[in-house]
Amino acid sequence: MIPAMPATAASSPRASSPRASSRRAPSRRAPSHRGVSRRGASRKGASAGSCRAASAVALRWGRSAAMGAVALLILLAGVWGSWGTAQHVMLTKGREQGTIEVARCGAASCTGPYTPLSAGSTARARVVIEKTVAVRAGETYTVVIKPDSDEVVRSGPAGVLYSWVPMGGALLLASVVVAGGLGRTRAGWVLAGSGVALLTAVFATI
Question: At what angle do helices 33-90 and 165-176 cross, to 10 degrees?
Answer without folding.
Answer: 170
